[in-house]
Please model this.
Amino acid sequence: MDDDLEARIRSGKALSESMGDFHVVGWDQQARTLTAGFTVRREYCHTNGTIAQGGFVTSWLDAAMAQAVRHDTDQQSGMVSLEIKVSFLERVGPGEGRAHGRVVRRGKRVVFMEGDLYNAQGRLAAQATSTGMLVP
Model:
């Protein structure tokens, strides 16, 4: 494997780039809510490049919730998803997107989360609930 690619994979940069440059915008510790931004590229979309495929929408929500857990644990824990439910409310097309991930409750091993995703027009486009297992 290419050494540069290996380094980008290990750092998470390759994954972030492949998810439309997914990045953390802010963290509200009191609300336990993380805000993330990303770009919905046309190649992520079906219907002639106009509607993001649901798996990408789910990935952005999952990533925002996982990053909320990382921030809520002061970068000491990550999480693996045990279950995720997504409700698709509006279309998500090309442009800038935003997602919020919230830690609802965190135990010693299990964490419950919620997520909201907004489309380029700023409308709530998808919501998620998730259960995860904490990992060091």
Remarks:
- The mean pLDDT is 95.
- The two ends are 27 Å apart (CA to CA).
